[in-house]
Amino acid sequence: MGSRLSSVARLTAAAAAAGVVAAAIALPAVGGTGAMFVSASEDLGIKPEDLKEPPLAEKTTVLDAKGNPIAQFYEEYRETITLDQVAPIMKTAIISIEDFRFYEHGAIDIEGTIRALAKNFTSGGIAQGGSSITQQYVKQVLLNSATTKEEQAAALEASYARKLRELRYAMAVEEKYTKDQILEKYLNIAYFGAHANGIEAAAKRFFGVKASELNLVQAATLAGAVQDPNATDPNLGKKQRAKLLSRRNVVLDRMAELKKITPEEAAEAKKKPLGYKGTPLPGGCEASPYPYFCMYVRNEILSNSDFGKTAKARSQYLNRGGLTIQTTLDPKMQKAAEKAIKKHVFASDNPVASEALVQPGTGQIKAMAASRKYGNSKRKKEMSYNVVADAVHGGGVGFQAGSTFKTFTLLTALEEGMKINDGFSVGSGYRAPYYSTFKNCKGQPIGDPSHTVTNDEGGGGFKSLQTGTWGSVNTFFMKLEEHVGLCDTIKTAKSLGIKRSDGLPLTEFETFTLGTNEMDPVTVANAYAAIGARGKYCAPMAITKITDRNGKVTNFKPKCKQALDPEVADAAANILSGVFTKGTMRGVGGIGRPAAGKTGTTDAQATAWFAGFTPDLAGAVSIGDPRGAQDYKLNNVTIGGRYYASVFGASIPGPIWKDTMIAALKGIPATDFTPINSSRFGGCGTGCQPVERSSEPEGDDDTDGRLEDADVADFG
Description:
alpha+beta; five-stranded mixed β-sheet; five-stranded antiparallel β-sheet; 24 helices
């Protein structure tokens, strides 16, 4: 306390010598006339005031399932390090130019402050700062913790009141920490320009090296940048770089003057060019090798109340929290999806293919890929939204899922007691017999007897659950949905996580089974994954663990429920397996292990899908034109360098799925499906008749009734 009082006394005496009244020091009011009187006993800082030091904003790092970094998020690009991770020459440079008596004085640099007071008094304002490194640290803390424009202005205002307030805080800081600790905190909080906060980020941004690797020229440059980082920001242009170069040379001269370096060393260093590299800032999904998955993770945190009660809290948690986020992405499976898509669809094509892979039994998203890069360049045909996911996770409106929805009607029929050979005789066209045939889940009749769903190229006759599914016969599934109930079918779909990509309620029309709702690959893949897990539905999952800046670990487990009777799922898998051997994927073939799936094509080939699964992995592939699927249909198009008169589910999505699964599951032992309970689902019940099963596929009559197998010769 004695030394502090002595310092204040010396400051007061010096101020008096400069023409200031000592008992009640009168200082010019900044920005106005008259004087501001400050009590020496209360406002010169003889009583330290504790400084609140909120955690610094630190970057968040996202890792894949193997622990490899794949993305970074930050509000301020900063990497906090310890003082021993800073090159000694950097410490010398910053102390030389900012506060060369740093290790000698207390909170107040008496000589510097006296000099500044005298200069400011004669100039009528704040002409010199005279701030110690401790005071500068205090200023940065106040600025960084400001949450309003008023608080930010108060932290920066040119006034004696602010300077005196900083002195009180600085005294408390000096009592609380050692000089080395203060210097470490200052170097981590200081802004150097070019969006680099803290010495580690600045070293990487300016010169592409760590702070521990900085040389004399680089250290002098960064030491010079902190005085006015906006004016010397090298990222802004030649004028700012010239100012920074000049400032660097001032630092070198000062270091020589203080005998920290020799005059010869200073002269040699001043001959060097600035050397600014402008290393690209890491972070952001556009910079990630897996941008669509990155967007999913980012939006999962920003939209999920588990990570903060308010949107602002979640944003700060992600962008300022210094988190390490472990995710579910499997780099091998991601590579398999990317390679398969690239083989069949070019980035320059107007239609876009996208694919998601999900693990049955956990809901873990293993891959998210698309044929186009993520970005905002229309010239390069980049995607500005997450085409693989729903709107909540950065996606758009999605694409109609077509006949992939017939699976939900099939599941409902099995759940309600139908056997695999049960079925109906159907014609080539279907009309609801009367208005009340179909009712939505509010009990409202919505059947339209005036609308005919057709199988334009045949497909009539008796169809069972098996043959109707293998051929994807529209009229059969309309009749089946009529039999089991529209609302029950919708409930089955919802139990498997089906929801519209745009976030709106599912449309509940009689054509629900034909896939008229817009979907995204993650949602569809996850629904099919539940069948592969014997009816166990798990919500889509992208994050497995978060470690905060203090090392606290939060683990996340799958959120699952038994959505289907396991035996119902087994029976559905048994039927859907036949799609590869007797149905619409026969021309494409299987993947060399037990697999099941369903093709899907929407009305007049607006979009095309394939969704399939094994007990180990599920995937969904969609293709459509983001300019507007209904206006730009997949007819008479060239995709991946190949001409297609019409694109169906087995034309492009099916082969992409096949190539992906073979590569993604390589080295993973094959798992068999659980055999169907023949006593429960085998044979015939009511509404069943023996039929001779053809080895030929029946075709995929989707919402337009055209047969997918008609194009088998083109893509087989």
